[in-house]
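Why does residue order matter? Because the sequence determines the fold. Keep that principle in mind as you read this record.
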Amino acid sequence: MRAIVPVILSGGSGTRLWPFSRSLYPKQLQALYSERSMLQETALRVSGDGFADPVIICNNEHRFIIAEHMLEIGISPRTIMLEPVGRNTAPAAAVAALLLAEQDPDALMLLLPSDHLVTLPDVFIRACESARKAAVAGNLVTFGIQPRGPETGYGYIQQGIPLVDIEDVFSVARFVEKPDEQTAQSYLDIGGYSWNSGMFLFKVSTFLAELERLQTDMLVACREAISKASSDLDFMRLDKNSFEQVPANSIDYAVMEHTDKAAIVPVDIGWNDVGSWSELWHVSEKDNDGNVCQGDVVSMDVHNSYIRTSGPLTAVIGVRDLIVVATDDAILVLPQDRAQDVKGIVDLVNEQGREEGENHRLVYRPWGWYQSIDSGDGFQAKQLMVKTGGVLSLQSHQHRAEHWVVVSGRARITRGEEILELEANQSTYIPQGTKHRLENPFLEPLRIIEVQSGSYLGEDDIDRFEDLYGRE
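Structure:
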């Protein structure tokens, strides 16, 4: 039996879950519901019997973090494909289908968002088996979610007649845009309507044939982006000039709403797209007062609230129906019923040019991470963790000098023509303009404190001469 190939879409910035979710470390890379990131949970859900290694599609900035997340759970992606620009789900599906078709034109492709919650994975796997039969028969299958109420934030799908000899699968009568509450309630009253989950299963040959019929220009540009793609370490980098010519469109608008091959598997899989802090409150386990408290939280006389901190002690008194989210550099407070407005705050933060919209103080790099500690006029202090085998680029800085103090582990340091090895409580100085490199070839993770001093301390003041990770 032909294995299903998961294609996991890991784009987007998840702004409605700010300040935990940032553009350089978005929602799908966060452990919001379990100890694993949402991307890890998605990949594990479709691993094992009946599934092939996944294809992951992401942007350039997330590539090393995603590779590390897959390594942590023992999954080796078939490829991690890098989009130079975001073009929505239809082009992402197209380039994945073209890639798979090179080896097997009838490969079965399961298109999945990386940031959705599924609390009944066994039910989902059984639904995939029904969808597989329909896909083999030449249908483009979507998974419809049983509505839990008159939700106005999702599109709806009306199911048609059952497919012949394929249990639990129906033709699609129509796709419906996000309705108002009264219309949504009428769908529930009538029955036969599902929420649009954004998950699909089909043969790549079927999908590409429909794409060629319906979106010829898109398919031509995607073919060129694949044919001119380049390898970058373990990543596949789509050709930038070609992919920029691809029209942006969703798979629903581009194909599913116009094909006569659309089918639906209605399911109740404990699905939630976790699109806001209030949604996360709804799906999380609550205490006797209806609260969800995570991190270093102290509360008194608090009811029906979501309180989460990854930073300082967060104390909350005498409130109800509130969301309080704190990191080490930002605090968000709002009523539960205003959760959808968080994106507006993020827009304001970005308009002011603040880093809190894009980065956490802890920033991941392929060699480990660094965390900002303090900064002021002419200085900046950071903690660096270099994992075993991690190597920073051979580099120099035009505008700053650096002082390094080893806190734990051992460091091998290139400083000009010298090679130094330092242990805990030892230090060195890197003069401005000096070529240098920090690496950890030892078994224990390396932690150092770096103090930068100079006239300009931006991350773009780096001249790289050699880099293990292929960065310019």
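The mean pLDDT is 95.
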